[in-house]
Amino acid sequence: MNYENKNKAKTNPIKANLKHGLVKMKTIISLLLIIALVNQARCDVNEPSAQKPKDPNDTKTARPEHKHPAFTERIEERAKMVATQITSRNVKDSNVLKAMRTVPRHSFVQHPIKNVWNSNLTRAYRDHPLPIGFEQTISQPYIVAFMTEAMKLKPDSRVFEIGTGSGYQAAVCAELAAEVYTIEIVEPLAKRAEKLLKELGYKNVFVKAGDAYFGWPGKAPFDAIIGTAAAERIPEPLIEQLKPGGRMILPYENSLGFQYLVLVTKDDKGKLHKKNVMPVRFVPMTGEVQKKQK
Ligand code: SAH
């Protein structure tokens, strides 16, 4: 007997009905099971307790958006600024040059006094610092590029800045690094910079009003630290907050009043190495650093 015949011989109407009913029930049970599983999965997604915990080392933050119209304004002036003031003085890192060509410096030079604001606008891309109000200045483009290059930022770097000022240096760093934490001691400047950086789409810059002397302990350690106000000593908390292998660049003022940019590197064993890299002129760092050391 072949297989087909054997099956035929066994067929009887009662058994067939029973079998049919069983198959139907199995299908219904399977369907119910699938529905239950899908529902369970939905609940898992909605319930916070079932969400994966955030990896504290995950630094995938939002990138600058460049959607604001300012990015399409004065492109030629920026290109000229890079060619005549920056590459000509030997800043070579192509990512730094690209950032300097991208960030709309003219958006950062606004001043509360209208006439100064107007003249600042036309001078935004010139080879010198500019006033930004509250007796503070935005650094010369070349100095911004030089200091940024010195930090050797990588896409996953976390940066700390002393002195937000206009927010321009923070924006340049934000083009290269994952996150920039910046503190400004003059509160209205901090607020203005925070608002502007948000408007321009810099979601990876975090601004706080306060004394940068103490750093930002909750966000430390940092791969790089940049100081844009001159002090007679390197704030000790910042040395602590620099990662082994990290780089710090800041203006240091000696007892005769001469200022130098100092590059501080921390080796893998935590030892510091300091090098004077260029004479400069920055506004003073105020607050705790000016108090006499105990
Ligand atoms: N990085 C700025 C340049 C700002 S000039 C830019 O790109 O525009 C230096 C700034 O440091 C000033 O705004 C000044 O108010 C600020 N500053 C001085 N001492 C400070 C301190 N102890 N903590 C934070 N900011 C300070």
Describe this structure in words.
With 294 residues, the protein is an alpha/beta fold. The chain has 2 domains: 3-50; 69-290, Rossmann fold (3-Layer(aba) Sandwich). 37% of the residues lie in helices and 19% in strands. It has 9 helices and 9 strands. The chain has helices spanning 3-10, 13-46, 75-86, 94-102, 114-123, 141-150, 168-176, 187-199, 236-240; strands spanning 130-133, 136-138, 158-162, 179-184, 205-209, 222-227, 242-253, 259-266, 272-279. Strands 5-4-3-6-7-8-9 form a 7-stranded mixed β-sheet. Strand 1 and strand 2 (136-138) form a beta hairpin. Helix 4 (94-102) crosses helix 7 (168-176). The protein is elongated, with a radius of gyration of 30 Å. The termini are far apart. 36% of the residues are buried. The model is unreliable at 1-10 and 38-57 (pLDDT under 50). The structure holds S-adenosyl-L-homocysteine. S-adenosyl-L-homocysteine binds at residues 136-139, 162-163, 165-166, 168-169, 183-186, 189, 211-213, 228-229, 283, 285-287.
